[in-house]
Write a structure and sequence with these properties.
Helix content: 25-40%
Strand content: 25-35%
Structural class: alpha/beta
Shape: globular
Largest sheet: 7 strands, mixed
Number of helices: 10
């Protein structure tokens, strides 16, 4: 028997971490093609912070609650769902609503919890693995020994990209803000970790021959510097603009080096695309957890009541890997 109401993490208004508070709402019912998950844990991600500040509204029809990934138990299945049944344990990509005891999810965006990963830790997998895979590797041939430069290598997206790139045979370079973070990235498989506070990453990357693939969440002056660090025919992927999106750059090197500069947001992609990415991850990436070549990277878990602290930690960028929330106090 399902309860009528559930605990949530709500926003009183747009603003800083202090606007978060616990609340209560009715338990939702899944529409056709969707499942209802009793949440074990939810991931905290950069887009959650942007939405909390009032700059990333949920798409039409999505929950206004924060939370783009969860793990837990399927407790109800709507019409049109063939694979999953009540009692299945999954991790899932959501379109919002993860900061709650129950959330409805497109059945095609659910994945089994990888062998060797705990149910709590699995909550931190989907948003970053869907993002990294879809932007770097989905429907693309992975050319081994190519050089991948990952900015913010110690964070959620960064630690995922470092691990996955290294396991797929790329030479991974990462930028970090401290020597401890550099050591962490090397432990994940980075060939070289660059402390951007003490060393110019452009010079370091060019000394290594330049980057074939660059994954950036910084923006700002990194846009022009990435172009300088890139080899000919490189691809630069922009996932966020933590240092700002309005920049003045010289576009001539893009033409001369034949660079591809692109970017995307995952939340607005069609459901069918996300389902295709889920299938690719299950086939090509989830087995790497089972044999120990990949591991979940959970930095800390907070209760719903401590969501403000979780967001402060995310904003301070003092974490390595993922920050999670659980309904349990």
């Amino acid at each position: 028997m399902l309860p009528e109401s559930m605990r949530t993490v709500e926003m009183r208004e747009s603003g800083g971490p202090d606007v978060l508070q616990t609340g209560e709402r009715p338990v939702p019912s899944p529409d056709p093609g969707r499942v209802l998950i009793r949440v074990t844990a939810a991931g905290v991600n950069g887009p959650d912070l942007v939405q909390r500040r009032g700059h990333y509204p949920p798409p039409k029809g999505a929950s206004d609650l924060l939370g783009l990934e969860v793990s837990g138990e399927i407790v109800a299945v709507a019409d049109g769902v063939d694979r999953w049944t009540a009692g299945d344990r999954v991790c899932a990509l959501t379109n919002g609503g993860g900061y709650a005891e129950y959330v409805t999810v497109d059945a095609g965006h659910c994945l089994p919890i990888p062998e060797g990963v705990s149910e709590i830790d699995a909550a931190g997998l989907c948003e970053t693995y869907f993002t990294v895979w879809s932007n770097l590797f989905h429907d693309r041939e992975v050319e081994k020994d190519r050089v991948l430069l990952v900015h913010g290598g110690a964070g959620g997206i960064g630690s995922t990209a470092v691990q996955l790139g290294a396991r797929l045979g790329l030479t991974v370079l990462a930028t970090c803000g401290s020597e401890d973070d550099c050591a962490y990235c090397r432990s994940l498989g980075a060939r070289q970790a660059i402390n951007y506070r003490e060393e110019d990453f452009v010079a370091a990357v060019r000394e290594a021959g330049g980057a074939d693939l660059i994954l950036d969440i910084i923006g700002g002056d990194y846009v022009a510097r990435n172009i300088k660090a890139a080899r000919a025919d490189a691809r630069i992927v922009q996932l966020a603009f933590n240092a700002g999106s309005k920049v003045e750059i010289d576009l001539m090197p893009i033409m001369l080096k034949r660079l591809v500069y692109t970017g995307s947001t995952l939340r607005s992609r069609p459901d069918a695309f996300k389902t295709a990415v889920a299938s690719a991850l299950e086939a090509s990436v989830w087995p790497l957890f089972a044999d120990g070549r990949l591991s979940a990277q959970t930095h800390r878990t907070f209760s719903f009541e401590a969501a403000t602290q979780a967001h402060r930690m995310m904003e301070d960028a003092t974490h390595r890997g993922k920050i999670l929330l659980t309904p349990d106090s």
